[in-house]
Structures are given as C-alpha cells and as structure tokens.
Amino acid sequence: MKYIILNADDFGFGQPCNRAIAKLLEFGILGSTSVMSNMPGAEAAVRSALGSLMVPDFGLHVCLNERFLVTPGLVSLRLNERSLNDQVALLDQCSHHSLLSEMSAQLELLRVFGADPSHLNVHYHLHLFVPAVTRALIELGNKAQLPIRWFTDEATQEMSSYLKYLNVSDVERRIDLANRLVEDSRVQTIPSETSFYERDASFETLLRIVTNAPEGKVLEITCHPADGAMEGDSYSDFRAQEYQLLKSTPVKELIACPGVTWGSFRSSRRFIDNGTKS
Question: Which of 10, 107, 253, 266 has the fewest other C-beta atoms within 10 Å?
C-alpha cells in the first residue's frame, strides 16, 4: 500500500489561495494544507476552515521572506525587498536564536487561530539550501514533536538545478550540509515530491508521481492552487491552472484508485506506527 498526502502550501497568502484550498480540502482532494500564519489573511482562513472541515489538518509554512514577520529580530533585514541571493546571504548571518524565535512565534500563532499543527515546512524550501534555517527548523520540529518536510532525491536534484539557474552560490555544498544536518538529527521527516509545479503541474506529472511512489512509504506531493489572480505573485497563472486540474474528474478518479491511501499528515502517523517508516 502507498500512502500519499496531497498538501497545498500558502494557505493564508491571499483570498484566491484561501478559497481554492478550502474548497479542495472540503471536497477531499487535499489531505492537508500548510499555513502562512504571519500573513494577514491567515487567521480568518484557518478559523473558517476549522468550522467546515470534519478532520482539519494544518501545518506551518514558515515564512521568513515576506514583510509580515512576527518577531523584531528579522524585520530589519527587509528580506521581502531583496533578491534570493541577498536573502540567502543575510539568512546565513542570522543567529540561531532569531530564526528559531520567528519560527516558534509563527507556530504559536497557528495554535492561537485554533489549529493543532501537524507538520512543518518553509516557504521557498529555504531549509533545503540555507543550513541556518535547517538547524532552526530541526530544533522546532524536535521541540514540537512535528515532522518536517524533506525531499526525495528527484526533488533535491530539481531544486539544485533551479537554484543554480538562479545563480545561488555553493548550491551543492549547501544542500549537502542541510542533508547531513537532517540525517544527524532526531527529527522525523516526511519525503516530499515537488515536481508538480509550473508547466509540470499536469495530470501526467501526478500520475507519474503516484505510479513511482514507493510501496509501504509515506510521500507528500506539494501544490499551490488558487481560484483567481494573485496581485504581485509571479506564480499566479500557474496557481489557477493547478486549481482547475485538481478539481477535475481525472484527478478525482486517480484518488479513488485502489492500492493508494490518500490522507493527511495526522493520519500518516498511524500508517507509520503500523510498521512503516518514511
């Protein structure tokens, strides 16, 4: 048996994201979502979904590079106004305390909204290639006893190529160090497949991921749907395409196929406890 979590990032980012994700959760297409708890629309989105879902599953989508930060330690860096390379350089210099404090505050916000968090990950997958972010996320995962998103070999290779294309320096060294930090820690990880993205956000990609998913393992598939335009968001058009595909009949039929359990991070714990480790 395969166990797959179809998880939507960016809940709270804006009304088009919030509406699309809430509908896909309600329809049973998504198993979970990751919340940008420091964004202005997050609280209303979470509270509304809590009132309509039978078994809500919310994780924290740590957001360090948008303008709505919770603690004073990172606000002065104005990361949202900088290029990715400059963001990485500044995050490299951040103290462990300041990163952990911001992540912890965002997690506490999610709890204040009424959610019982089920998993952790980071906007733009910064924890894959900024070791300082990796260290802080590992500590938060261990303290909160929550699994963190990690990456399949294929996803890691794709991210490495993309980061090199963006001229991020020392990509392979960064990713290797982050991998070693995770391997040497006690934190639980959930492997994530991130190739359902941009022009590859297609039914064929979903089918390939599901077909190649390992038996007896948990696998997360990430997505980023929205039901309309997101002002100032370069991914806006792709979000709308994802939403149309995810609510389509072929995807519903794929989810209904035998041999695969589609579920949430919370219910994946029972799958793991029944003799399977991811």
Answer: 253
**Domain 2-273 falls in which CATH fold?**
TIM Barrel (3.20.20)
CA distance 133 to 205: 29
**C-alpha span between 198 and 235 (Å, rounded):** 8
Instruction: Read off the DSSP letter of residue 222.
Output: E
* Dihedral sign, Cα of residue 40, residue 43, residue 48, residue 53: positive
Q: What does the alpha-carbon distance between residue 96 and residue 154 come to, in Å, rounded to a whole number? A: 29
* Closest of 238, 210, 234 to residue 224, by C-alpha: 238
CA dist 12 and 226 (Å) reads: 11
Nearest 5°: phi and psi at 16? -60, -40
Distance (Å, rounded) from C-alpha 232 to C-alpha 13?
12
Check: CB of residue 261 under 8 Å from CB of residue 3.
yes
Is this structure's pTM higher than 0.85? yes
**Spans of all domains in the chain:** 2-273
Give 10-residue mean pLDDT values along the chain (278 residues): 95 95 94 96 93 84 89 85 91 95 97 96 96 98 97 94 91 97 96 95 97 94 95 90 97 94 88 50
C-alpha 10/C-alpha 14 separation (Å) is 8
- Cα 24 to the center of its chain, rounded Å: 16
